[in-house]
Amino acid sequence: AKNQGGNRYACYRPTDSQSALQAFQIEKALRQALDQNELQLFLQSQCDQHGVLAGAEALVRWQHPEQGLISPALFIPVAERSDLIIALDNWVLARAGELLANWRSRGLNYTLSVNISPRHVRHASFVEDVKAVLARYQFAPAALVLEVTEGILVDDLQASIDKMLQLTALGISFAIDDFGTGYSSLSYIRNLPVQELKIDQSFIKGIPDQANDIAMVETIIAVARQLNLRVVAEGVETAAQALFCQQQGLWSQGYHIDKPLPVSKWQARWLDRVTA
Ligand code: C2E
Ligand code: CA
Ligand code: CA
Ligand code: CA
C-alpha cells in the first residue's frame, strides 16, 4: 500500500529484539536507498524578523518504492547507529552546495541550513567533508548554516570546538538546533563558536498563552542578545506566534509560513515568482 492517507509515517521504537531486527533491515534498505537515489531533499522557509524570506532548512525524506514517503524521524536515528549517517549527511551537504551555487548564479543570497549529526561532527572526516563541498560547488560560505545539537557536547567537546572554528574561519555558520531541550547549563554556549540558536518547537507551542514558555523564550532571547546570536523560532504554527516572533526580533520557521516542500516546489513558490 503506497503511503495511505497521504501523510502517514511508520513509527519505530527501539524497545525489543524485534525492533533491533527492524532497525537492521531499515539500515540495509537505507544504504540501498542512498545508492539508488531514493532520498529527496525538502526545504522549509525561514523568515526574518520582518517576515521576509531569509533562507531555508534542508530536510531529508526517503521516497520508498513501496512504502511511500518515510519520515527522517524514523530513519535518521537508525542511520545514526553507524557511519551510514555520515554518507547521508554528505549526500544532503552536496545537494545543499549544488543549490547554493545555483542560487548564487541567480544573484540570490538566501541562507541554507543543513542538519549535521553529532556522530558526523565527531568523525575524522567532518571538516574535510564540508571543505570538499565548498571547493566543489563554490557557493558563498556565509550562506551555509550547519545545525548541530547539544549532542556534540558529550565526549570530546574541545575537539568539536576546534573543528567548528576551522569552518567558521571560512565564513560558514553554526546553529544550535532544538535549543533548550538538552540538560546542559546555558553557560556552555559561551564557549561554542555558534552564530545562531534555534529555539525548540516545544517552547513555541505555548506561545502566547503559557507564561512558562514565554519566560523560557525571553530568557533564551536575552542570552542570545548578550552573545550577539541570531535566534530562530521553530514550529511557528499560528499568526499569534508569528507576531510574537516579529515583535521579539526573531526569525521564524514553521507551518504558519509553509510545510517542508520538495526543492522544485519550494523554488517555484518562493523564488521563481521573483526571479523569472
Ligand atoms: P529538526 O531539525 O528539529 O527539524 C524540524 C522538524 O520539525 C522537521 O521534521 C519539520 O518538518 C518539523 N516542523 C517544521 N515546522 C513545524 C511546525 O510548524 N509544527 C510542527 N509540529 N513541526 C514542524 P522532519 O522533517 O520530520 O525532521 C525530523 C528530524 O529529522 C529533524 O528535526 C532532524 O533532527 C532530522 N533530520 C531531518 N533531515 C535531516 C538531515 O538531512 N540530516 C540529519 N542528520 N538529520 C535530519
Ligand atoms: Ca534542524
Ligand atoms: Ca529543531
Ligand atoms: Ca528535532
TrEMBL record:
Part of the whole protein covered: 529 to 804 of 807
Domain EAL: 23-274
Domain of life: Bacteria
Name the UniProt record assigns to this protein: Two-component sensor histidine kinase
